[in-house]
Write a structure and sequence with these properties.
four-stranded antiparallel beta barrel; about 180 residues; single chain; 2 helices; alpha+beta; flat; about 25% strand
Length: about 180
Amino acid sequence: MKLSDLVKQVISEIKDSDFTMKEDTWGNNPSAGGSMSPGRSPTATPPSPTANTKSIDILDRFKNFKSQLIQQETTSAKKLAEELKNMFLKKTITVSASKGSIGQIEKEYKITVNNIGVRYMKEKYYVVFHGNEDGSKENEYYLTDSVIVVDNSATPVSSTGTTGGLESPDLSTGNTKRNIIPQK
């Protein structure tokens, strides 16, 4: 017997029987849905409050929680930025970063650090170094690796002003002040 003959036989048996389709809860069989009929939406009656129940709105508590969380995150980000500034400010470093913004080409850059910040962008925190590469204009460098190489040999030295609180002697006037701590 072929498959097509079998299908024809099943269809003819369905037609011959007293088989009628009834609606279900999805609109095909009303008896399965209980008292629901097509097109009616169920109506729920909320439980009636008793004398021993009370409603409490926690919206204010949740708002306070969120503001405290944001405040703690901001404080932590500022603390991290200050720690990094103490370590790397005005130093020449080599970092793996993307230059300009997130998602740019990631490579190693040798920069002189002018400022450091911690930013929350795209659901993530980023350490951002502000500095310049070999005398070029200042850019932002978004770190992609936590390892930072510090080049101590290229520390910038100020050529003007006093250094370390010492005064250079003025030999022309004969006034030679010395910064010598008295020995006891």
